[in-house]
Specification:
By secondary structure, this protein is an alpha+beta fold. The protein folds into three domains: 5-132, Potassium Channel Kv1.1, Chain A, CATH 3.30.710; 141-247, no CATH class; 336-537, Neuraminidase. The strands form eleven sheets. Strands 7-8-11-12 form a four-stranded antiparallel beta sheet, with no helix packed on it. Helix 1 crosses helix 2, helix 3 crosses helix 4 (73-82) and helix 4 (73-82) runs antiparallel to helix 5.
């Protein structure tokens, strides 16, 4: 009734109302309201779309419903893009995302490319599917044909590919190159995006080396990358100091990791826990070390666990001199040179190629000796000692200087009460001598300290130890130190005081993990501190 326009596609005619078309479609609104010749025509020919696709789009404009299938979605999407009916375009995209699989991924990607679909979130979801299934897709001829050099480069540079072993990414690249010999001219450029140092030595020898001669005409870069990787594998102790793309971990985002060595008073092997999402921990399978470490140092994503306590033959805890290095690239442990003396409840810091171990104690004595570990030579050597015997202190490096705060000073841990300190001292690697800085507002021991945004933050700890009962009184306060003014400032206190906890920075927030709370219970909770807002949340 009152139909005033006929739309012609090939041999098919569609009768419609101009007013309705103009309200539903930007394409028709401009056609019927602007100064265009079609405005006054009662028969309009449309080219570049099919009658089948347009019939579904017209049905949606009149009735608000549309029926999609894999057989018709191509034509419907084409028609919706033609008449600029964005709502139908979104329906088509949602349908395709719900149906995407290995068999049709290339077809869907090509379809969206052909029509220039740019709906918010669609490309991101497609990319996510592709990256999650990259290696299986690279075994399909249709996907290899679709994938351009530029897109391959962007995918190889994406750390979301971390779920696949690097050797599988290399083999996927080989499949892409062999699919079309004209692609071999890109070999040098592509090979630079493969991280050969993340492979195992056996993979490089057995699966990469055989390709060297056949690809040498097209890629001298492959030989260079292989030689670099073999040199990396051979020079084990240099690895933490080599910051190169080929050895950089593929990780889409930073991971919070806990190296667990004790639950309550029970000794366990040093297991590794990854925080996958809030309150959900995942235990990493693999080798473990029989150590309850007191200190760890991180260098280029290599983790050094130092000292602490281990079970002796007598079934008792004893201070340990052992040092282990963990490589998350291969989920492997390596025993390094032992410290010169066993240490527990000491402090560490990394400056340049050295790890410093400061003071600490055994069951029978407290000491002030300081030694440093030469990472390249796998060797410990004593340096100028700390000014006093101390344990339970904390150390952090800021601006290439090692700061030591708090702790207990004592000549013996067994028969004399120690003094809990407020003191702050720092040393430089050049002078290797200690200088006094401003004291903290609260004396504390067994606290945690971290450097962030040019300042030092101190959390929790113990402020009083009653020797008769071995009970402790907690210090829930938080303090921040500004090295430019040499001044400590009190911040918001933790909701629940604790000691022996962990601390790290993630997404501009400081996280405090676990520890012994002052109700006598060990905690599995995570507290988050916002330095900008000076606020805590759990």
């Amino acid at each position: 009734l009152l139909l005033d326009v006929t739309l012609v596609i090939d041999d098919h005619q569609f009768h419609a109302h101009k007013a309705l078309l103009a309200t539903q479609s930007d394409y028709f609104r401009i056609m019927f309201t602007a100064d265009m010749r079609e405005r006054d025509q009662d028969k309009i020919h449309l080219k570049g779309l099919t009658a089948t696709g347009f019939s579904h789009v017209l049905q949606f404009m009149y009735y608000g419903t549309i029926e999609l299938s894999m057989n018709t979605v191509h034509e419907i999407l084409q028609a919706a893009m033609y008449v600029q009916l964005i709502e139908v375009v979104k329906f088509c995209c949602s349908f395709l995302l719900a149906k995407i699989c290995l068999e049709n991924c290339a077809e869907i990607m090509r379809l969206l490319d052909d029509f220039g679909v740019n709906i918010e979130g669609v490309r991101e979801k497609l990319e996510s599917f592709l990256l999650d299934n990259f290696v299986p897709l690279m075994s399909r001829p249709d996907f290899l044909s679709y994938l351009s050099f530029e897109k391959l480069m962007s995918y190889l540079d994406n750390d979301h590919l971390s779920r696949f072993p690097e050797i599988e990414l290399y083999e996927a690249v080989q499949s892409w190159l062999r699919h079309d010999r004209r692609r071999w001219r890109h070999t040098d450029t592509i090979i630079q995006n493969i991280r050969f140092c993340l492979m195992t030595p056996s993979s490089v020898f057995e699966k990469v080396n055989p390709h060297l001669m056949s690809l040498l005409v097209y890629s001298r870069q492959l030989r260079y990358e292989v030689e670099q990787a073999l040199n990396y594998f051979q020079n084990i102790h240099h690895q933490p100091l080599l910051d190169m793309k080929s050895s950089r971990i593929r990780s889409a985002k930073p991971q919070t990791t806990v190296f667990r060595g004790m639950i309550g008073h029970s000794m366990v092997n040093s297991k590794i826990l990854l925080l996958k999402k809030p309150r959900v921990w995942w235990e990493l399978e693999g080798p473990q070390v029989p150590l309850r470490p007191d200190c760890l140092a991180i260098i280029n994503n290599f983790v050094f666990l130092l000292g602490g306590e281990e079970l002796g033959p007598d079934g008792e805890f004893h201070a340990s001199s052992k040092v282990f290095r963990y490589d998350p690239r291969h989920n492997s442990w390596l025993r390094m040179a032992d410290m010169s003396v066993p240490r527990s409840e000491f402090a560490v810091g990394v400056i340049g190629k050295f790890i410093y171990a400061v003071a600490g104690r055994t069951r029978d004595e407290t000491f002030y000796s300081t030694e440093r570990y030469d990472i390249i030579n796998d060797k410990w050597e004593f340096v100028d000692p700390y000014p006093v015997n101390k344990y339970g202190h904390e150390g952090t490096v800021l601006n290439n200087k090692l700061y030591i705060t708090g702790g207990i000073t004592s000549s013996s841990t067994s028969n004399k009460e120690g003094t809990i300190e407020q003191r702050t001292r720092r040393t430089q690697v050049v002078t290797n001598c200690w200088e006094n800085k401003s004291k903290m507002n609260y004396a504390r021991c067994f606290h945690k300290m971290i450097s962030y945004n040019g300042k030092l933050y101190v959390f929790g700890g113990v402020c009083v130890i009653l020797r008769a009962s071995f009970e402790s009184q907690g210090c829930p306060s938080t303090e921040v130190y500004n090295p430019e003014t040499d001044q400590w400032t009190i911040l918001a206190s933790m909701p629940i005081g604790r000691s022996g906890h962990g601390v790290t920075v993630l997404d501009k927030q400081i996280m405090v993990l676990g520890g012994l709370c002052y109700n006598g219970h060990y905690s599995d909770s995570i507290l988050t501190f916002d330095p900008d807002e000076n606020k805590w949340k759990e």
